[in-house]
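Subject: t-SNARE coiled-coil homology domain-containing protein

B.,
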Amino acid sequence: MQRGRGAGMSYRGNGQTARDKANASDVELGLRENSAHLDALSDKVSLLKGLTQEIEGEVAGQNRFLDTMGGGLGNAGSALDSTMAALERMSSQGGARFGLCVAGAVVVFFFCLRYAVLTARG
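Prediction pasted inline below.
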């Protein structure tokens, strides 16, 4: 029986059984697949990082634009306030005739604006 055992060990080669070789092959294949998946994941992370940086730049630009626009609107608001104050002073001095003239001017302005929009459209 000793001889049978010795003969059984001869197929091992360098001390590994066929099962050990298959397991080692499976492990190596798994490591290669993991490496390929990690490379793909790394590419996707790099792409997302680039997109995030582009979004950050766009948001910063839009914030700057909105800040300048807000300042412009604030100036327009103060200009409208001063215009309304001047109109109130003038209306208190001019009476009903002044109010009628202002209403007529507003109506004419809106008709002119409507005409300009309609002719621009075509």
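The mean pLDDT is 79.

T.
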